[in-house]
Amino acid sequence: MSDYDFDLFVIGGGSGGVRAGRMAAALGKRVAVAEERYMGGTCVNVGCVPKKLFSYAAHYAEEFDDAAGFGWNVGPRTFDWPTLVANKNKEIERLNGIYQRLLDNAGATVFHGHASLVDAHTVKVGDAQHTAERILVATGGWPFVPEFPGSEHAISSNEVFFLERLPERVLVVGGGYIAVEFAGIFNGLGCTTTQAYRGPLFLRGFDDDARTFLADEMRKKGVDLRFDCDVASIEKRVDAYHVTFQSGETLECDLVMYATGRKPLVDGLGLDALGVETNWAGAIVVDDNYRTNVDSIYAIGDVTDRVNLTPVALAEGMALVWHLYRDHERPVDYDYIPSAVFSQPNLATVGYTEAEAGEHFGELVIYRSTFTPLKHTLSGNDEKTLMKLVVDKASDRVVGAHMVGPDAGETIQGLAIAMKAGATKALFDSTIGIHPTSAEEWVTMREPVR
Questions:
Q1: Do 246 and 280 reside in the same domain of the chain?
Q2: Do 178 and 157 contact (CB within 8 A), yes or no?
Q3: Which of 63, 175, 178, 206 could form a disulfide with 197 if both were Cys (CB 3.0 to 4.6 A apart)?
């Protein structure tokens, strides 16, 4: 046994930190985990989980309307925002308890408080100091709101989950997945919703066909999308916010939500004093084994600003524990990581966009299908679905799959397995589809569009 208090000290009780901490503890290591806010991190408390619960809630209004075509007479209906928030809070509290018990049952020591680095082997929590052979930083990220006249009147995604009342008119600023998701949520819950983004089209980095298709569907549902549009100032008036855009246009609303990116949460950690290297964005720089330039200090998850997804942080936590405390390596494979945007309708993707694939593989064959799902032949809903496959012509391998439509994430997960295994378009074609489903379109697209 070493002279240190702990073998591993984890700063951050989010998904990645808890996974690393409990797995190391399960292997008999002396582990401590420090968390100053809430167990489970961003995803559980102010991210993926509550956001998807809100997304479900927002979709019910459309479901009620769709039901009429199937013979259901849905009477007068109202929505109660406080009920949704209260029920969401109960579920989050339950998950907080699960994360705490996972660590307790594994034998880890949990500190509730702000942790900072004193030296390469010492962590301070409150007034107490603890030594550790290795220290893992897994503090995640934090919403970023730029400074401009009136920026103090804007909220971020952290605060939106705890609003006391649902606003009637909302401006969502940003073009990433959080902005797109909340524009759909507010619109679905009955708010007059505007989304402003400074670029020509939101969801930069996703496939262009999917981005354009989703924008058209969101506009059909009533979201006022304004591209090449940026806020110049926000002025608080008696009963509303007066927003002025760079173009000179103005907008009156009851809430301004900024979702313009997140930054690695490194403030107050003491990284500078120890000389831990960070990049231009403040992210901790690590090698292939998540070690920083200080040999005893490691970092995983969003604080490294590489692939900012909860399952990736979980995988990195596992990989680190295997690297440090097991006999062989289990490195994370960052190729073909699926992801979903819980927009209205959902967008999901795995692999390369068409543009990326063109640069990486050369000649491509593109398959694309847009159609009305069977459900909407009776519902009367004008929503369409898009499915797209990107194929490397030389190998016939499917290297990209993109979908906009109901439950897109559920569908893409299965394709991710096939694509990780190197599935070819011929293999897709030889697979029998499930009829009648939207998913069968993946195996019936025969004619390339280009």
A1: no
A2: yes
A3: 175
**Contact call for residues 22 and 39 (beta carbons, < 8 A):** no
Domain count, the chain: 3
Amino acid at 348: A
Q: What percent of the chain has pLDDT over 70?
A: 100
Which tens digits make up the pLDDT trace of 167-223? Answer: 999 999 999 999 999 999 999 999 999 999 999 999 999 999 999 999 999 999 999
Identify whether the C-beta of residue 426 lies closer than 8 Å to the C-beta of residue 420. Answer: no
Active site residue 328: no
Check whether residue 137 and residue 23 sit in a common domain: yes
Q: Is the pLDDT of residue 1 over 90?
A: no
Which of 260, 288, 305 is the endpoint of a domain? 260
Transcribe 239-280 into DSSP letters: SSEEEEETTS-EEEESEEEE---EEE--TTS-HHHHT--B-T
Predicted confidence (pLDDT) per residue in 334-374, tens digit: 999 999 999 999 999 999 999 999 999 999 999 999 999 99
Q: What is the CA radius of gyration of the chain?
A: 24
Cα separation, 427 vs 418, whole angstroms: 10
Structural domain of residue 238, as residue ranges? 151-260
Asked whether the predicted pLDDT for residue 328 surpasses 80, the reply is no
**Would you say residue 448 lies in a domain?**
no
Choosing from 130, 153, 242, 435, the catalytic residue is: 435
Q: Which two tokens stand for residue 182?
A: 């909340």
Would you say the C-alpha torsion 369, 374, 377, 379 has a positive or negative sign? Answer: negative
Degrees, nearest 5: CA angle 14-320-9:
55
